[in-house]
Amino acid sequence: MTRNRVRLSDVARDAGVSAATVSRAISQPGLLSQETLARVRAAAERLGYQPDAAARALASGKSMTIGAVMPTLDNAIFSKALQMMQATLAAEGYQLLVASHDYSMAAEAVAVRALLSRGVDGLILVGAQRAAETSAMLAGTDIPLVFTWCAPAGSAAVIVDNELAGALVARHLLDLGHRRIGVITGSVKFNDRQRARLAGVRAALEAARLPLPPSLICEEATTFAGGRMGCAKLLELRHPPTAIIGGIDLIAIGCTVEAQARGLSVPEELSVAGIDDLDMSAHVSPSLTTVHIPTAAIGARAAEKLVAMLRGHCGDAATCLPVDLVIRRSTGNRR
Fold this sequence. Notes:
Elements: H1 8-15, H2 19-27, H3 34-47, H4 53-60, E1 65-70, H5 76-91, E2 95-100, H6 105-117, E3 122-126, H7 132-140, E4 145-149, E5 157-160, H8 162-175, E6 181-185, H9 192-207, E7 217-219, H10 224-235, E8 243-246, H11 249-261, E9 271-273, E10 290-292, H12 295-310, E11 318-321, E12 324-326
Parallel strand pairs: 1-2, 1-3, 3-4, 4-5, 5-11, 6-7, 6-8, 8-9
Antiparallel strand pairs: 10-12
């Protein structure tokens, strides 16, 4: 037998209050006395009442949803950030709606438009670079926005110094005596994080008066296979590098596997390093030297900042989280 759905009027009758009072208990509980609020909540629990989300949004002017637009969901870095966003927002009563664009400006515009049309209360985005259409949509909305990893100047953001990350790993290899260093990066056209990391590597090499010619830079997919492909190209050069930096750990791990498949010993014959510090990077063989990016903290702090903005606190500042070199067994002295 199907049970009839409990309505707001049923709760009002059971609690001995008006339907308007029950509505206020849902959308503006601070307007009611503790005694009235307790009576309404007890009646709702007794009857098994679940407020309709659309009605609650209409009453409060809030959907209690937050949108997050990620470059990809097929990457542990963004997955960990999303997990922390979800946990942090859920603790505050918000639901996270997620979209991804696979590094496509056009797809990001579609995702942002869809989330705005659903009435999200705020948006979390990755990076500073996007299509003019998307920037116009963001400029035209009055909901809070928080940017992550990289951010437009003057925006509310939780970022890291990606250029420093690239420089740290390059300096480490220079300190080990390497003078011919290759880089396998993701596409830099619509990925300001990869572009900044490459710039950091180049700056460190220039400071040591060493070149980074185009022949030592491979742009590949930010995947394990992309790392293998980029490594193969670099190792087939007439004068191959003695060390290779992956723009992300996954690329670096793919590079290590490709080098080993070709009979090279890592790090004895080729040093390999990454950037991100994935959980798996400590457990591959050899364990990967990398730069720790505080991914979980980025997700949690971005969610916290957005909730604070929704509560009326100023969010017009960027929080820059530290990055640190993690030296493991995949890098060694130049022989």
